[in-house]
Amino acid sequence: MLDISPAEWTAILLSLRVAVIATLVATPFGIALAWLLARRDFWGKAVLDALVHLPLVLPPVVTGYLLLLTFGRRGLVGGFLADHLGIIFAFRWTGAALACGVMSFPLLVRPMRLSIEAIDRRLEQAAETLGAAPFKVFFTVTLPLALPGVLAGMVLGFAKAIGEFGATITFVSNIPGETQTISSAIYSLIQTPDGDAAAGRLVIVSVVLALGALIAAEWFARRATSRLHGN
Amino acid sequence: MLRVDVEKQLGEFSLAAAFTSEGRVTGLFGASGAGKSSLINMIAGLLRPDRGTIVIDDETIDDTAAGIHVPSWRRRIGYVFQDARLFPHLNVAQNLDYGRRMNRLASDPAQRERIVDLLDIGALLDRRPGKLSGGERQRVALGRALLSKPRLLLLDEPLGALDEARKLEILPYLVRLRDEANIPMVYVSHDVAELRQLATQIVMLKQGRVTSFGGVKVLT
After folding, report:
1. CA distance B15 to chain A (A)
2. pLDDT digit string (tens) for B116-167?
3. Residue B202 pLDDT > 70, yes or no?
4. What is the DSSP string of chain B?
5. Which tens digit of pLDDT belongs to each residue from A113-127?
6. By the 8 A CB rule, do B184 and B152 touch?
């Protein structure tokens, strides 16, 4: 069995906490955005779509640096949040969650959007004729039918968040117990003499988590299809 | 009472139709492309007229001059589509209760039982729509529309997707509905035989215009 040391456990648990929070906070925004992109035509839609996908193609170090400029203590948003709401991102685990949330957002939104696009809009019309106002149509028809896609997006986003490295280390550095996730712990370990064994253990943990998430996402996607066919 | 006087431009196609019907079952008759579905969708509120008025009983639900457009969900209409459109994530019982829940109506077990019996769908209540035949689906769709307690029932070629045998299976239910449910209906069809059996008044549509209006005899 893997003999995981307390320091490694700290990194694993921090990674899980960061990824869970990042996913949970990103999900409502993801659903709203997925719905907007799937169902509405508006001015600037192409730009919004590109913005959502930007973290996927931008060098992570650039995203991290932009986060630092925006959400750092002296950043425009970061300064405001710190002074007025007491929310601090810089060099805190919350900042790691923010970085992971932003980096995983494109992967989280995509399955949600596809599953909303796949819903027959005529079902929503039927709901309307039965007396359901638009927000009720959304919560009783659209969202339940899109649920497997929503869960698949959450799982994929979670998997990405748990493995995020570049933006996180740029934004909140690599502080054990506060911002040192599995990825940054591995990075430190392979630069340390005799760190190979510990790094290897964390690598195995990473692979298991990522594989598990991908399998789960695939399973949800298949559930989505059968749900739409009413079986 | 249903009074319709609307105009709508849909691409190249222009629809301009006016009629007033007091009948229990108003048959909208015409070839495909005559504008029947657009007209019924306007009555349902799914399509907005460019100009004109629609009045059910004493309530104006569309009046473009006065800026009135009551949204679908507040029209209290029931709509049975050609393709049933049952909610695939709900079972038959939940589909039947959907309209009642959305309209916040108190549960009415007697009424529900009456309609379930009338349509013979008692044995299907636990099933998902994916496990129903075409005819069963259409019966459930009828029940679902009726249980939302509409003041007007719209049926858009409800037998159109069914084969001859299935049509004969559903028709008697529709006749019973007409005679027992006491809800005025608008019935869209291009099938003369169907309308002869069901309709009490006929609105004949041709290329977006009403060409004749009257009793079932105008079908000849």
Report:
1. 22
2. 998 899 999 999 999 999 889 999 999 999 999 999 999 999 988 888 888 8
3. yes
4. -EEEEEEEEETTEEEEEEEEE--SEEEEE--TTSSHHHHHHHHHTSS--SEEEEEETTEEEEETTTTEE--GGGS-EEEE-TT----TTS-HHHHHHHHHHHTTPPP-HHHHHHHHHHHT-GGGTTS-GGGS-HHHHHHHHHHHHHHT--SEEEEESTTTTS-HHHHHHHHHHHHHHHHHT---EEEEES-HHHHHHH-SEEEEEETTEEEEEESGGGG-
5. 999 999 999 999 999
6. yes
Which one of A120, A121, A130 makes the best mutation probe of the B interface by having the most chain B beta carbons within 10 Å? A130
* Non-local CB neighbours of A200 within 8 Å, separated by 6+ positions: none
Domains identified in chain B and CATH numbers: 2-219 (3.40.50.300)
pLDDT by residue (tens digit) across A175-195?
A: 888 999 999 999 999 998 888
Q: Taking CA A18 as the corner, what is the angle to CA A116 and CA A213, rounded to the nearest 5 degrees?
A: 50
B161 in A contact zone (CB under 8 Å): no
Interface test with B, best of A123, A128, A129 (most B CBs within 10 A): A129
Fold of A6-228: MetI-like fold (1.10.3720)
What number is the ipTM of this complex?
A: 0.92
pLDDT computed for residue A54 by the predictor = 94
